[in-house]
Specification:
Its main location: membrane. With 470 residues, the protein is mainly alpha-helical. The protein contains 20 helices and two strands.
Amino acid sequence: MKKMNRELKMALLVLLYTLQGIPMGLAASIPLLLQERTTNYGSQALFSFTSWPFSLKLLWAPIVDGLFVRKFGRRKTWLVPAQLLIGLLMLVAAQPIDAMLNASEPNIHAITAIFFVLYFLCATQDIAVDGWALTMLDDNDVDKASICNSLGQSLGYFTSYLLFIALNDTSVCNKYFRSVPSDEPLVTLGDFFVFFGIVFLVTTIIVAIFKREEPTREHKAEISIAGSYVKLTQLLSLRPVQLLGLFLLTCRLGFVCLESTFALKLQEFGVPKAEIAALGPLAFPVQLLVPPLMGRFAGRRLALWTKLYPIRIGLGILLLCGALYAQVYLAPRAEGGHAPLTMMEWVVLLVLNLTSSALSQAMFTLQMQFYCQISDPSIGGTYMTFLNTLTNLGGIWPATSSMWLIGQLTDCTSDMDAHVCSERKNRFYIVASGTLVIGLLWYVYAAPWFRRLETLPPSTWHIAGSKRTD
């Protein structure tokens, strides 16, 4: 019975993280759709701001952690309204979102605003779920929260992303789902908004009614909002936390540029988005299997993380070579702006994608396990949110900056048949190569110090006088 209760708790966490991944997956499909209409990397950089709430949620995390309705539940106070608002926003935006996207000049500002709000609500839900996981699970299972996070987010992300790309692409629909070809997709983004909006509303109502949040001593303490910010200030004053924050903000400089632009460069040089998206289903098993596999490494997680780092830099070099290959060999043979891949080319691209997915998921899971290991439960939601905020910020600011820089250094024009970027100002390879050099320098000089953080005693990560509450 106890084992069943444990599994039900973990299943609930996976479900909540899955819901969180759904808007993210839909947002991930937008750059591919924009790339079909324009190769303006400035628009891509603007849209990348939609994910910034996950990197800024620390600003309101203490409010989520310290303000709640005791009878309803500390975490449900924020989780339920956030998820209801996500569902309602998707239903309200379902009709205008298609017109914004399909206009001759996509209304990138309005589209960005809609997804920015969705990400803000998902970030708020994430704060609540992270904090709930620390008290919902037993002491021996707390580190499993990272596996629930990785598994659930991946499941929601891939479900929405892959389904939408497949059912919205006319070539895929005509080839696999229709007997009579048509120029219209089976479903639009608005259709997905309606479907998943209803999913959010129904699921949230069920959780609100049937899942009771057990009271804890944290409720009795009634940490005020001001008290949460005070504890956050105390957290920021811890030397190990400061060092960890510095490392997290810089560690992904070496590879995030190439990882965030590689698919767009392939599409720019003629690879159909359907062929790029087709790689996703094959990467999904990797995303599911890696977190449990990483759960077996109960010891030196940061030590293993740093061993994977040079492999990821090496992958970045291969991605750079892949982009150059696409420009030299694929772009010249493109007809009507499309250059279908040969079987060998597709297999190579698949291997690169699977390797990237495995490395990314493994390193993320190892980080999450380390966060759960060192987090101070007295401010569980705020502590986990702070570390996740730094992780997200460390990935998003280099991606946005490099996307903007590439846009500034590249002249692009588009017509009905193809997108063309001028080589006179195309400095993509210089920017990408520069980030790889930065990554190598980070590994040589910073990685050893990063690895030593794992050897520090747990007490050095906790605020003085705090205790574990159950």
